[in-house]
Write a structure and sequence with these properties.
This protein is mainly β. It is built from four helices and 28 strands. The chain has helices spanning 17-20, 74-87, 146-163, 197-207; strands at residues 3-7, 51-52, 57-63, 98-101, 106-108, 116-117, 120-122, 132-138, 170-179, 188-193, 221-227, 232-233, 238-246, 252-253, 260-264, 285-288, 293-294, 299-306, 313-323, 327-328, 334-341, 346-350, 358-361, 370-374, 379-386, 389-395, 398-403, 407-409. Strands 1, 3, 4, 5, 7, 8, 9 and 10 form an eight-stranded mixed β-sheet that branches.
């Protein structure tokens, strides 16, 4: 699908003379220099092409200018990298998440915030490698400096802390570029585990100084709206529509190991009597958003069914957003309140049984096939009676027969 591969180290640093003349405006000393501090022409980049997922690995690669070329200032070089990446290499933006320069500076590369992934192919069967943060060290045709090593260690420490990874997830890598071909509009990075012994030793040395620390990043949100029908009939399932705004630092996902679920709350993760067996993911986890990912500042839409009780009255249930496996999103608790009117049908209650359950059969005889089970205390719609047997509706779309000895009219 892709061809014309060329080493990134021979491409990204060959700027046109006009690019070398560009000035750098703004600097954040002592930390990673953010994109806001650099006067990029953001209209050239295309953030609609961004892909998001929770990173599982960190690829660390080294790039160099052509032989005999050196630059005097990394600020000018990194700004030129932005334009060269888009106009010459056909990326949508800088293709790396972070850049560390030979003179001990570090920069945010690709725009998009946390969890944004470069367009990457690994020449490996390990698919988790495609969900990786890419950190590059620009050596400027010099030996890796102590200040460069220290800054590289600082950046890796921050990335590990942000994504709660350990240093075993850091991989020394080599880079190349696969240019677009045919209907493909963007270039890709091609990554390999490095074959450069010296670079591998350098990364191993840097990893020894990597330390995780507390990072003040959060999951939080706010409830925009909760829609519940005004009239709800007994036994008639209804749909709840909820909009929640992402007010935190990380995206929310609708699948995967970090999916964001509407879940039961107060107390959290408890089984709900309003559970819909073929609609909810479990008794306590209801549904994820309709969107593949929801970025900070965006709104997520959730839609789910409630199994309406048969007995008329007022009901309520509390929910909250849960990011798997166990992170609750602050500010997202909401309550669904509803009134159930009396339906135009008869009800029965399942009495105690010797086994703790009662079989539901497809016809009124013990020899008939079992089609389900109900438990003592269940309230069911009575459809008809045939001797000692009751035909009941025991879920939103299932009917069957139960033995009358264990049934009470209500």
């Amino acid at each position: 699908m892709y061809s014309n591969s060329a080493k990134v180290s021979k491409l990204v640093v060959c700027f046109l003379p006009v690019l070398l003349a560009l000035c750098f405006a703004g600097r954040v000393s002592g930390q990673i220099i953010d994109r806001d501090a650099i006067p990029y022409d953001s209209s050239l980049s295309d953030q609609e092409q961004n892909e998001y997922n929770r990173p599982e690995k960190i690829a660390v690669a080294k790039i160099s200018p052509p032989a005999g070329v050196q630059y005097g200032d990394s600020n000018e070089w990194v700004r030129g990298l932005f334009y060269y990446s888009i106009t010459k290499l056909k990326f949508s933006d800088i293709p790396f998440n972070y850049i560390v320069s030979w003179d001990g500076k570090s920069y945010v590369g690709k725009a998009g915030g946390y969890d944004v992934l470069p367009i990457v192919d690994w020449e490996s069967s390990d698919e988790s490698l495609n969900n990786c943060v890419v950190v590059v060290y620009f050596d400027n045709n010099r030996e890796v400096t102590n200040s460069g090593k220290q800054k590289l260690s600082d950046v890796l420490s921050e990335v590990l802390s942000i994504y709660d990874l350990d240093s075993s997830k850091i991989i020394a890598a080599d880079l190349s570029v696969s240019e677009p071909e045919g209907e493909v509009s963007l270039s890709k990075l091609i990554l390999n585990k490095t074959g450069d012994t010296d670079w591998n030793y350098t990364v191993m040395d840097v990893k020894r100084n990597v330390t995780k620390r507390d990072i003040d990043l959060t999951y939080k949100g706010s409830i925009v709206s909760v829609e519940v029908p005004e009239k709800i009939g007994s036994g008639e399932n209804f749909t709840v529509k909820v909009k929640i705004k992402n007010e935190g630092d990380f995206p929310w996902y609708n699948s995967g190991s970090n999916a964001a679920y509407i879940a039961t709350s107060d107390p959290r993760n408890r089984d709900s009597g309003l559970y819909v067996s073929d609609k909810w993911d479990s008794f306590s986890r209801v549904v994820t958003s309709e969107e593949k990912w929801v970025l900070p500042g965006e709104e997520a839409e959730f839609e789910f069914e409630i199994d309406t009780p048969l007995i008329a009255g007022e009901y309520s249930e509390k929910f909250e957003l849960l990011v798997l496996p166990d992170t609750w999103v602050g500010g997202t608790q909401f309550e669904v309140k509803f009134n159930v009117g009396k339906g135009d049908y008869d009800l029965v209650e399942i009495k105690d049984t010797e086994t703790g359950y009662l079989n539901v059969r497809e016809c009124p005889a013990l020899s008939c096939k079992e089609v389900g089970k109900v438990i003592p205390g269940d309230i069911l719609i009575k459809i008809e009676r045939n001797g000692n047997w009751y035909k009941v509706k025991f879920s939103s779309n299932k009917e069957g027969w139960v033995y009358g000895k264990y049934v009470k009219d209500i």
